[in-house]
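Q: For a teaching handout, I want to show students what a protein-ligand complex looks like in token form. Below are the inputs, and the small molecule is flavin mononucleotide. Please produce the holo structure.
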Amino acid sequence: MKIDSPEKLAQWQKECQKKQEQYKKKVIICFGPGCLACGCRDVYDRFEKELDELNVRDFSLEAVKKTGCHGLCEKGPLVVIEPEGIFYTKVKPAHVRDIIEKTLQKGELVEKLLYTDPKTEKKIEDYKEIPFYKKQMRLALRNLGHIDPDSIEDYVATGGYSAVAKVLTEMTPQEVIDEVKLSHIRGRGGGGFPAGRKWETCRKVESDTHYVICNGDEGDPGAFMDRSIMEGDPHAVLEGMIVCAYAVGAKDAYIYVREEYPLAVMHLYQAIEDAGKHGLLGDNIMGTDFSLNIHISRGGGAFVCGESSALMKSVAGDVGEPRAKYIHSVVKGLWDEPTVLNNVETFANIPLIINEGGEWFKNIGTEKSTGTKAFSLVGKVENTGLIEVPMGTSLREIIYDIGGGIKDDRAFKAVQTGGPSGGCLPADMLDQPVDFDSLTKAGSMMGSGGMIVMDDRTCMVDVAKYFLKFLVDESCGKDVPCREGLYQLWQLAVKVTEGNASEHDLEMMEHLSEYIITGSLCGLGKSGPNPFLSTVRYFRDEYLAHIKDKECPAGVCRELITYEINDKCTGCLACIKPCPVDAITGEKKKLHVIDQELCTRCGACYAICQFDAIDIK
Ligand SMILES: Cc1cc2nc3c(=O)[nH]c(=O)nc-3n(C[C@H](O)[C@H](O)[C@H](O)COP(=O)(O)O)c2cc1C
Ligand code: SF4
Ligand code: SF4
Ligand code: SF4
Ligand code: FES
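A: Here is the structure, written as tokens, with flavin mononucleotide included.
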């Protein structure tokens, strides 16, 4: 059906909603990256097979729905039975028959698959009651875990494309910009620049051609928010881009997405094709004189290509190298034309701002950081997954209430936000509100939303070393302060972890950082020393322990530790085989011994011992 008027869209929305309502029950299977890795495909196939074999398709025509990430990836594969919201975790194909026979046919619960609250040990039936979900506010992630990303009808049933209808028929481009400005939404890709101001500047540049680009590069290790949105709700991104293109007067728009996200690429292509077929993209959208084509540009995975000017070069087919900032890409961007570049999550928020109003959005979050922010919560936290909270929520609420605290009851040590060039915040910053300005003030940054939680077994010098190495590898090499400076900074961090550094080296690292920040051309170099600066600011004692005492307090840095077997050793023999250098000797049921001359401190024995019989000293 071609949608050539807002009335036709409204009628289609009603038809799609009616279609949804006829299903008595829906089996929703999460097909997000975490659940895919845990085998949700097999669960899905088993549902299809068993539903046919048991001939119980009558209770619902479209019983099994694949969705994007539901959030609680730690407990995947997840199966949710709607409308009740019954939440089954760690589902295996072998559980499928039970779910069909008990829950779908008799309305009973499969107790063993329900989520157990680790604090109360109680089983929770409805996922909305699980603490992980309770404190969240899912705006950008609103449809993830609920709709089939490959079905435009699913998106339309949620009121999808109403924002496009509204702007094209009821608002002038300037009114759209004013609404976005009123919302005070700041870009979710890292810099936090106000989106409305960016759009306005671009619109005002006189040119026959304007472009809109969506940044789906997401190069931060451990981050998967943008990926999940593109995979789980691609039409929301398209809708946000169409609104923006109308506001700035663009006829062509690009989504820059990394090649390593094949599912996101597939779903985006499908969404573009479906939107085009229904008259929501292409010529004369919804019967108006506004036309837009959205193209996909696939990136090769270089972190620096997420930077605006490098990204635009990459889209244009050139080498993805940043350029000097005095040329603003909003004025002279893709092919030297005025260009708006926004992040995936920024665009996913736009339809809500148009439908609910900028005033509504402005009242969520804090005064200077409005709305919500999605994070991929990973590391040593109980509930790893995809979350979204109002800006201003504290780190403690995120890590303890939503994340369920630190794994294995270990002590919290630090949380890293802001991607590789972000910073690590210690325990006494846990009550820090999460918003653009507070994080920057604390020496970290919002970044695009990666959040890595670390426990007391983490060495902060080692963490800094890891991120510095990442940045050294990803620096494009165009300028000396970043290319050589970051390399030297990394080498000095290596020296600290090996116990060969002096206090003078530490001072040198601090001076070098200033030089890199001042002299680098783009954000990669300018924020490159952050992993060092934030760790030395909050964990200076740990640096000094490596330098002065030649000790790694967390027991991580190989050159500074020894593995020793204590008298808890049961002589189980389990550690002998994994040792790559035959450094462990001992007989069955007798205390084993490590030959320190041979030991390479690989940690394999420590990882395998079940009796807590190996000490790291
Ligand atoms: C080295 C580097 C990498 C970046 N990577 C990304 C990225 O992966 N995704 C993103 O949206 N922004 C990234 N940015 C920020 C972009 O340059 C740009 O500010 C952002 O995409 C603008 O969108 P926003 O205003 O909606 O945040 C990166 C910046 C730098 C310096
Ligand atoms: S700061 Fe680093 S990544 Fe950025 S342009 Fe210079 S060398 Fe390239
Ligand atoms: S695995 Fe542990 S308990 Fe078993 S022999 Fe080795 S040190 Fe002893
Ligand atoms: S740390 Fe590695 S090398 Fe050393 S004893 Fe254990 S397994 Fe062997
Ligand atoms: S991938 Fe299934 S919950 Fe995240």
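A: Two things your students might notice: Residues 187-191, 193, 215, 217-219, 303-304, 306-308, 341-343, 346, 448, 522-524 surround flavin mononucleotide (ligand 1) (CB under 6 Å). The longest strand covers residues 372-379.
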